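Structure first, sequence second, as always.
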């Protein structure tokens, strides 16, 4: 009898093993615990805290040199533009997004496509910085992604069929969507899909929104600019900021920018959503004296209500397009709950993530001109003569004094996410060394038209390199090592328990380097530029590494003199997955 019972159990087990891929539900527990579970990657950032660290170590310093491709898949078509997407993996299926608002499900064992969904884009979309997408989100039985015409699409994981579509906003008004949506638990509303908006160069007002994952129905909305009122359950909730016009003159707050275009992170320790906000609009800072809250800031939101729990402004009264959107990475040190962020403005900040209090900030790029330092109060100490001049003060009133400012508006770091290793206690920041000639011009707001009031040309700071991967000690801000790269770095970083740091270059290499020294241990030419972050996970006992290759993004479009130096790089669109040959892995 005993043996029969055992047989029955065994046959059920065998059946479930054969029935792959399983398309299991992705629960809130899966999402909150993502950093610890090595057999899947169900969040952007490999965990809500976005450390991009995997404890996996079967690929390590000793054997990474043996890494070889397991498979590659082309994103095909005539739509080979910048590929900035981080893949997700669950139960043997990989979900990736591509240029022009496309999404795929792929069998991770073979690299074969299971389904593809191409979003039908209308004429007249207004993406500022290439037709990119940075990845999808998994929740329940669905996979969700945003589109260049500012829609949010929920698809069935198994079939790729649309479950629901919601309009975030009117693309004709300058709105678009490129970030990976964030999934956040809520006691009152169940799993929420949290998104921002793109369009900060068009005078839109940034906001953060939460929708019910199951239906896409809006739960709350939180504008990022002081004076605007949020919504909760279909009713007005609270105003952003203390008082209308407290840090904005006149009516400029009404078209004040602060786009939340890079999405956010969720820290389950503090139950806070961290979002970054972009430049105030227009770029000409003389039109809007004051701090212009909460532009160029990091804000922490309550998942239940969307209320702002704390805000920290990196560039008050920004005059250089130093969007404060870069990711907030939660980490613990000396028993404190901290967060780090590497800003476009060239400073690397550490904050107390429970209350947003300033801890320290140090330059992570060289020769910064716009500020002398970040003061003890957490505010920049400006170099007054490095602020682009007021066109009103010029001879013909059409062009203010031009300055050469470092960093350029593409930033000491841009969309490419950094990584943190709890083993080395270092951050790995994909930085860029460049500056810009910039001047202000008169401008008036017109719906759907560029709202800058500035002219600019980017130039490299050094002759031999722009990109530099930097290992930074968050306790001191000291740069422990750095690897220079000729072209600007525009892909993200991954770090592992195997003592490795993976990152890609526009020249096309995916590299693995020693996390303690930066020494290159492995490199593979993917055939086109890498502007996306790599991931790693374990599949049937083997450690896999995946990155999407495909040159593009903001640099070739906005890079000024730098764009000329990268004009020879070829576009592409290919998912590459690597592993160790069984013989190497067994050693
Ligand atoms: Ca995981
Ligand atoms: Ca901007």
């Amino acid at each position: 009898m005993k043996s029969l019972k055992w047989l029955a159990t065994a046959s059920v087990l065998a059946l479930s093993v054969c029935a792959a891929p399983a398309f299991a539900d992705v629960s809130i527990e899966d999402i909150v615990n993502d950093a610890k579970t090595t057999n899947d990657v169900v969040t952007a950032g490999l965990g809500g805290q976005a450390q991009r660290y995997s404890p996996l170590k079967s690929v390590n310093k000793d054997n990474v040199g043996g890494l070889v491709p397991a498979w590659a898949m082309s994103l095909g078509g005539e739509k080979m533009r910048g590929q900035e997407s981080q893949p997700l993996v669950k139960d043997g299926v990989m979900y990736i997004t591509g240029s022009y608002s496309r999404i795929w499900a792929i069998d991770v064992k073979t690299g074969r496509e299971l389904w593809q969904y191409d979003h039908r884009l209308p004429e007249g979309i207004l993406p500022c910085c290439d037709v990119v997408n940075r990845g999808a989100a998994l929740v329940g039985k669905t996979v969700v992604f945003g589109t260049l015409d500012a829609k949010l699409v929920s698809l069935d994981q198994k079939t790729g069929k649309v479950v629901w579509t919601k309009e975030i906003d009117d693309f004709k008004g300058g709105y678009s969507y490129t970030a990976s949506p964030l999934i956040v638990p809520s006691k009152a509303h169940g799993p929420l899909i949290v998104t921002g908006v793109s369009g900060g160069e068009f005078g839109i007002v940034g906001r953060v929104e939460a929708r019910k994952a199951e239906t896409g129905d809006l739960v709350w909305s939180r504008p990022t600019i002081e004076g605007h009122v949020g919504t909760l359950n279909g009713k007005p909730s609270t105003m952003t900021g203390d008082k209308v016009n407290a840090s904005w003159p006149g009516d400029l707050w009404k078209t004040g920018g602060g786009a939340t275009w890079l999405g956010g992170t969720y820290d389950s320790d503090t139950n806070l959503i961290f979002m970054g906000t972009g430049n105030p609009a227009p770029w000409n800072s003389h039109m809007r004296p004051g701090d212009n809250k909460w532009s160029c800031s990091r804000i922490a939101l309550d998942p239940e209500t969307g209320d702002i729990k704390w805000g920290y402004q990196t560039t008050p009264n920004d005059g250089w397009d130093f969007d404060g959107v870069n990711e907030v990475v939660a980490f613990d040190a000396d028993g404190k709950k901290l967060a780090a962020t590497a800003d476009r403005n060239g400073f690397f900040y550490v904050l107390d993530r429970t209350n947003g209090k300033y801890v320290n900030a140090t330059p992570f790029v060289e020769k910064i001109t716009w500020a002398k330092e970040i003061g003890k109060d957490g505010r920049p100490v400006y170099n007054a003569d490095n602020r682009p001049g007021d066109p009103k003060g010029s001879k013909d009133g059409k062009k203010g004094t031009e300055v050469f400012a470092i960093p350029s508006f593409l930033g000491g770091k841009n969309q490419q996410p950094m990584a943190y290793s709890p083993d080395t206690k270092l951050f790995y920041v994909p930085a860029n060394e460049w500056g810009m000639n910039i001047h202000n011009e008169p401008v008036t707001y017109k719906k759907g038209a560029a709202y800058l009031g500035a002219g600019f040309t980017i130039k490299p700071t050094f002759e031999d390199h722009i990109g530099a991967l930097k290992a930074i000690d968050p306790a001191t801000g000291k740069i422990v090592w750095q690897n220079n790269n000729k072209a600007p770095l525009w892909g993200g970083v991954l770090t592992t328990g195997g003592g490795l740091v993976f990152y890609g270059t526009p020249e096309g290499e995916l590299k693995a380097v020693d996390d303690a020294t930066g020494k290159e241990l492995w490199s593979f030419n993917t055939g086109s530029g890498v502007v996306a972050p790599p991931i790693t996970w374990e599949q049937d006992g083997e450690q896999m590494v995946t990155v999407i290759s495909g040159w593009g993004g903001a640099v070739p479009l906005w890079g000024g003199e730098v764009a000329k130096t990268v004009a020879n790089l070829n576009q592409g669109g290919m998912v590459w997955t690597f592993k160790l040959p069984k013989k190497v892995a067994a050693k």
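Margin note: Helices lie at 2-18, 28-32, 554-558, 561-565, 582-586.
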